[in-house]
Design goal:
It is a single chain. The protein has 266 residues and is of the alpha/beta class. It has nine helices and eight strands. Strands 1-2-4-3-5-6-7-8 form an eight-stranded mixed beta sheet, sandwiched between helices. Strand 5 (131-141), helix 5 (143-154) and strand 6 (161-165) form a beta-alpha-beta unit. The longest helix is centred in the N-terminal third of the chain and has 19 residues, at 3-21. The chain is globular.
Length: 266
């Protein structure tokens, strides 16, 4: 091989590496990706799941997932290990969507700043990737289920469907009375006010019959209030099931198919 040929090969290799380094992250990276978002001057970890089949040539549905109390922190990782993230790892083909997984700080709830972080992460992902703004879904479990109600009440026209799991609307023990209410105090009875606000949003509520952590009556009341105003709501109470009803929910082809079939009403 001549020196000229060797030089040409080296030049091609250098140019190839340079082109690769300029490839936008959203065009090449898939799986669970680390991201940060800044709210009120503070940076927060979150994760975004991008399907292996992602391509920018089409628009993708988006799921915003809110974790439970056990996954709070600042590692930016543990929130992917329980609930929806775990379900994706078990059967990724069932979730052809971009999934946003923010993390609430320790000792916080999905209200106030953590709620703002969740929306900011959703907005940031929507700018980075090709998303279908008419197929944005909101789901969460336990404390995250409360966050579903909190965010949906404040952004009722943003989400195509809600999937609150073992959720609650009102404080049911003393430790939760400092919680920022889902429904502002001047809006009337909380379940009825919530139902009026969300009467046009398709909702599937799931709760375990013998939940010892969050009273099942919280979901029963929410479902009844939504039905009373003619909302498109489904309620599933799983017999003989305690708090962990999320594995069965996210593992259900019926529930997941229902979710992806929903489109935001205009």
């Amino acid at each position: 091989m001549t020196f000229r040929l060797i030089g040409t090969v080296v030049l091609i290799a250098v140019l190839s590496r340079a082109l690769e380094s300029q490839t936008p992250p959203s065009a090449s990276q898939t799986g669970f990706l680390d991201r940060r978002v800044t709210v009120a001057g503070r940076s927060y970890h979150y994760q975004v799941y991008v399907p292996f089949s992602y391509t920018a040539s089409q628009r993708w549905p988006v799921i915003l997932f809110l974790h439970g109390a056990g996954e709070r922190g600042d590692d930016g990782l543990i929130q992917t290990q329980v609930g929806l993230g775990a379900a994706v790892r078990q059967n990724a083909a069932r979730f052809p969507a971009i999934i946003v997984l923010p993390q609430a700080p320790a000792e916080s709830l999905w209200t106030g700043v953590p709620a703002q972080v969740a929306i900011a992460a959703l907005d940031q992902v929507s700018r980075e990737f090709q998303v279908d703004s008419d197929r944005v879904y909101l789901t969460g479990l336990s404390m995250g289920g409360n966050g579903v109600w909190y965010l949906a009440y404040r952004y009722p026209s943003r989400f195509a469907a809600l999937l609150p799991i073992c959720s609650f609307v009102t404080p049911f023990r003393a430790a939760l009375h400092q919680l920022a209410p889902v429904v502002p105090a001047d809006s009337g009875a909380p379940f009825e006010a919530l139902a009026r606000q969300l009467r046009r949003v398709p909702t599937w509520i799931v709760h375990g019959e013998i939940d010892e952590a969050v009273p099942v009556d919280q979901s029963r009341q929410a479902a009844a209030a939504l039905k009373a105003v003619g909302a498109p709501v489904q309620y599933l109470e799983v017999p003989g099931t305690n708090h962990n009803v999320w594995d069965a929910t996210y593992g259900s082809p019926m529930v997941v198919s229902w979710l992806f079939a929903q489109h935001r009403s205009r």
